[in-house]
């Protein structure tokens, strides 16, 4: 007999038991941030003007899907935080094959100077001109 418990928002299964594959799916993480490999700007950013940020990354298998990104700006420290979450249906089976993605995001910098752009697991410094 296999005992599966849901506590504190997570599934727990005894480590000593040999489990069927479908029970292991219950333990997989269903939300996380996407793995980013590079970020770059299509052109030099200017203060108050839209600029396109090109984000490249990968999904660990075809069951993971990109979600809507969120952007936060810290004007005092001149840091732009960009989070790109991904979601996986815990009941969906998929081959573990990496899928690359490319996402273009329009940004506006409110002030000139050196800015740090942080996107999930990667950062890049950029000069914003007036």
Our count of domains comes out at 1
Structure class: mainly beta
Could you give the order of strands across the largest sheet? 7-8-11-12
Q: What is the strand content?
A: over 45%
Number of DSSP strand runs: 12
The separation of the N and C termini measures: 68 Å
Shape: elongated
Residues in helices, as a percent range? under 10%
Order of helices and strands: EEHEEEEEEEEEE
Q: Let me know the largest β-sheet.
A: 4 strands, mixed
What's the number of helices?
Answer: 1
- Kindly report the average pLDDT value: 83
Low-pLDDT ranges: 22-27
Provide the gyration radius in Å.
20 Å
Describe this structure in words.
The protein has 130 residues and is mainly beta. It has one domain (31-128). It contains one helix and twelve strands. The longest helix has 5 residues, at 21-25. The termini are far apart.
Fold topology:
Blueprint: E1 4-7, E2 10-13, H1 21-25, E3 31-33, E4 35-41, E5 50-59, E6 64-66, E7 70-74, E8 79-83, E9 85-88, E10 99-108, E11 113-119, E12 122-128
Q: Can you tag this structure with a few keywords?
A:
130 residues; mainly beta; 4-stranded mixed sheet; 3-stranded antiparallel sheet; 1 helix; 12 strands
In short:
With 130 residues, this protein is mostly beta strands. The protein has one helix at residues 21-25; strands spanning 4-7, 10-13, 31-33, 35-41, 50-59, 64-66, 70-74, 79-83, 85-88, 99-108, 113-119, 122-128. It has a four-stranded mixed beta sheet with strand order 7-8-11-12, with no helix packed on it. Strands 3-9-6 form a three-stranded antiparallel beta sheet, with no helix packed on it. It has a three-stranded antiparallel beta sheet with strand order 4-5-10, with no helix packed on it.
